[in-house]
Structures are given as C-alpha cells and as structure tokens.
TrEMBL record:
This is FAD/NAD(P)-binding domain-containing protein. GO terms for molecular function: flavin adenine dinucleotide binding; N,N-dimethylaniline monooxygenase activity; NADP binding. Belongs to the FAD-binding monooxygenase family. Residues 44-64 have a biased composition (Polar residues). Residues 21-78 are annotated as: Disordered. It comes from the Eukaryota. Its cofactor is FAD. InterPro entries: FAD-bind_Monooxygenase_sf, FAD/NAD-bd_sf, Flavin_mOase-like. It holds the Pfam family FMO-like. Keywords: FAD, Flavoprotein, Oxidoreductase. It comes from Cladophialophora psammophila CBS 110553. The lineage of its organism: Eukaryota, Fungi, Dikarya, Ascomycota, Pezizomycotina.
Amino acid sequence: MALLDVPAAVNDGVVIKEPITSPPPIGPGAFDSVPTTFIHDSKTNGTASSDESTDGATLATSANGLLDDHSETTKKTGHTRHVVPLINIPGYSVQRKLRVITIGAGFSGLMFAHKIRYEHPEMQNIVTNTIFEARSDVGGTWLVNTYPGVQCDVPSHIYAFPFDPNPDWDRFYSSGAEIHEYMVKTVKKWDLDRDVQLNTKVISVFWQQDLGQWKVIVECNGVQRDEYAEIVISAQGFLNAWNWPDIPGLGKFRGHKVHSANWDHSYDYSKKRIAIIGNGSSGIQILPKLAQLEDTDVLSIQRGPSWIVARMDPGKLLGKSDLGSNPEYTEEDKKLFRENPEALHQYRKKLIDSVNKAFKMFVKGSPENIDNQEFAAQQMAEKLNYDPELCAKLIPTWELGCRRVTPGSGYLESFLLPNVHLKQASIKEITEASIVTVDGEVYPVDVVVCATGFDVSHRPQYPVIGRDGVSLAAKWADEPESYLSVACPDFPNYFIFTGPNAVVGHGSLIEGLSWTADYMIKWLKKIANEDIRSVEPKQSAVDDFVTYGDEIHKTLTWTGQCRSWYKKNRVDGRVTATFPGSALLYKRMISDIRGEDWNIEYNSPNRFRFMGNGFTEYELDESNDLSWYVSK
C-alpha cells in the first residue's frame, strides 16, 4: 500500500470507498465514489442516511458498523458524530464567493474598498463588494457638513487615507471642502467608485436565517429592490443623522432657521441678528465666520463652556518658529513632501507619535492631565485678554478631555468684539421672532443657527433586524453595547465601523478605521476558506467587554463632570462612544481575531469538511518548495 493509502470503507469517521494513492488523482471525477451523504450519531439512536444507489447502501452498512464501534464513546462524551462527504478541492479553498454589502461611501467604506482590491488582492477571489451611498457623491460627513468655517480638528497629514498621503494640504488643519476634494480625487485615482452605487438609500436590513444571508432593501430614483448578501458592513459613521433640537416653539419661528449639518448657502446672513445654539465643534467654528460678516450681531447661547486649546505646536513639529495654531504650509513644505516621500512619512510619524503619547492626558489626576489643563486655561485666558467675566464663563472647571478638545481658531477672540454676545442658559422657548431663556430674558433674532450636533445613540436610521427578529434599534435603545465596537450579538455577519466604544476620542481616527478594516478582512477570509455560514460575538464576551470598559472609564477624563456626546449627551452615565483604552491598545486587541469570543455556525455538520481532499493547494504545484519551513 502506498504511503497515502487507507483501507476501504471507513477511516476515522470519514467514509472513503477507494484507496487514495500517491500522487492522488486530483481533478474531475477523482472523488466521484465518495457518497454525498452524512451519518448522524446521536446519544440514543445512531442512524444512517444514504442515497438510493448501491454505493449508498454499502455506506449505510459500513456506517452502522462505525456507529456500533463508537456507541460507548458517544454515550460517554455526548458528542454527535457525522460521516461527511469529501470534496475534491484542497483544504482552505474558497467554496463560495461571498457577497458583501457596504453601507456608506465615506472614509470607512472607501478604506475597506481599497483594502480588498489593493492591500489584499486575494480578496477579489473571495468577495464581491457593493457600496450603497444614499447621497449624490462620496465623502460622508465632509459632503454633508459645509457650514462656514468647517474644518477638521485633526492635523491634515494624519487625516488622510494611509495608502495615499497628500503632500499638498494647504494648512495644518484642513477645511471640510479641501478634505472632500481630496477624497473625491483619491477615489478617482484608485477607481474606488467602481463598486459604489450613488443615490441608493438603504431602507431596511433583515437577516434570513434559512438562507444564511441578509436581505437589504434599497431605493434608487423612487424604486425599491431587494439585494442579498452574506455579509453586511455598516460604514455610515456616527455623525450622519442630524435632527432639529427639541425646543418648544422652534417650528413657529418666522425668521430663518438652519442646522449646521444642512447649511443653506443661498441665504444672506449679513446685516442680521443671529443666535447660535450650541458650542460643540460646529458652533465653535461657525461663530467667528458669522461675526465677520457685515453688520451682524451674533449671540452664542450655550449651556456651558468647552476647552479650546491647540493640542500641538505646528511650528515645533515643522522645526520653525511660532506659526500660530493653524498655519499654512509653504510651497517649500509642499515641494519637500512631494519630492521626498520619506520626509512626508517621517513627518506623519511625528504627528501620530505625538497623538499616541497624549493618551496619558486622558487619565484623571495624571501629571499630564493636570499640566495640560493648566496650560489650556492659561492659553484661553490669554485669548480672552484676561477679561475676568469672560474667563469665568468660558474656561471650564471640569477635566480637560471630558469633552472633545478643539483648536477653535478665532472663537475665543470673537467674544472681545462688540457684535458678539454670550448667554449661558437653557432655552425656555422660541417665539415667532425671538428666543426666550429660562431666566426670562428675551432675545429678538432674525436667524437661528442650530449647531446642536447629531444623533449619537448609534441606533440605525432604518430597521436592522437580526436573528429571531431582534431589532438593533431596540437592542441599543437604552445603552449601545458592542464587541470591540465592530459587532453585536444576534446580528450574524454584520460588521460595524465606529460602533459603540470605538477609537474616536484619542489617536488617529483614520488609522483606527484601517485597523478595523483589517480585522473584518480576517473574518471574511475565515468565513470563505472554512465554509462558515455565520459568525456573531457571544453575549458573554460583550458583557465582559462592557463591564471592563465601564471600570477603566472611571479612571479616564471621559467620565468627568461635563455633558458630552461621549456619554449620549449626559453629564452622568456610561461612556458609549470612546474605546476604553488607548488607540494602540485597540490596535493590539483587534490584531487577533479572538475566535473564542464568537459563535460560529458552519455550513457542514462537520466543521473540518473544508480540509477537502487532504492536500493544500500549494503542495499540488510541483514547482513549489515543499520544505520551505526547514530553516537549518
């Protein structure tokens, strides 16, 4: 008998009708004699099933012998044994190509599209990817947010696709328009819009347990259709759904009202009395721009202050003298970065290194937090010209980092202007022509700007219905809980970018998206190569992650005494937005697939059926080195 010969009938639970000789007859018909059936052995009554052929009858006889041989072991262990059909393909071969539907064509969805085409080209044989984008262009939040002064509060050179750094950023912090222009240009350069369907809105997402697929209903040009996919990836981000604030009387206001996320560029805001409600990032950026318009009178209505501080010194990073908080890059800078990619690489590394080192600032009571808070307070006081009343109102007393820190170029200085006013109070109501605060003060206005942010509940804006009819919106109604921000129990094959407790408060968001995409790709490879039907995180794993996160967050400034979207716009309560640790800890955590935390359902009753005919594809090519692992 040759080295790979095995006796006919049964070998170790797998039925093989003929000996396998070496080399094996790989090709059509090689395994035709293997019956297409499996035998189920239960604790109480082993049964055999077969087709109606003679071979099937022979198999049943042999299999009954197997069940008799192992009946005692089976009773002791309680295990179910199967005799499965072999498949004439090498182990780890892709048995079916996965259909992936990605929802959203912002940074997340486009990053994933690039990964599977260029960084992991083997994925082209594993998946087909379709990106549904509800809007008329790519860009996500940078397509939607076009209000005056919109800019990113992350340095430009680390707020870029890692695969295509941009040497030509105009400033240290880029405007929203420049970021969107860069995204569109990059998409065209890499042909990433190949799989994007614009103006296609997702209406609902339903898990089909009998098919092991998601049914995704989409609408384009008023026509709905059904799409099916084994995998759904939510790449919508967490700042995509804006709503008018719930303020009594807002609907009856007769002046001009506008939301920061839906800016009306056709309206002339000059020579108007303008009230800006809110002082998050958008309100902080809008105020200086409106204050500069001709004959405007601007009122900032806010519940409390925000930390306004430049977290980095651009001049120091560029090896130059003081350049201010948001300097322009010179033509010499751009030329250097264009002609010397390594110089750009080292500069980007310096920026990210600085960001990663800053995590200690978010530890309550740490020297880094105390020192930075003192520095920030001094910097803010200086910009307010040490005006005692303004300093008392606009410099926070709660921990630096409790809310998102923003550079806020020109914001504080605007309050020194005669046409800019501050009111720190809640709003009682809005009348046809004025705003009334809870202390009874009345402010006549022509324009109401709602810089009140987004729905940060993480609940999807359309039905997402998982296993056994579970609604994701209902599951996350009170507290959104996830597995490492990327998945949720009861929602098989459903992956999420920037889900609950993602890397959004520290580190480079874009790098975090890249790491998350790599993690998803590991799962897609495993699902395809091992003939897996579905995967979802165990509820116990999510419970443990949430419990750990709640405890570690108690040591971090994100649980400080401020109202923050990190806590669903609460003063007290769980931190639901930020990862419980540093960006580098997140990277380490998702560098491993951690399959022990997941429930895995296979297409075959035997999880090892994907091992195929017992060979790897590599060794079947006789030109390959089959002893590559011998090192000495």
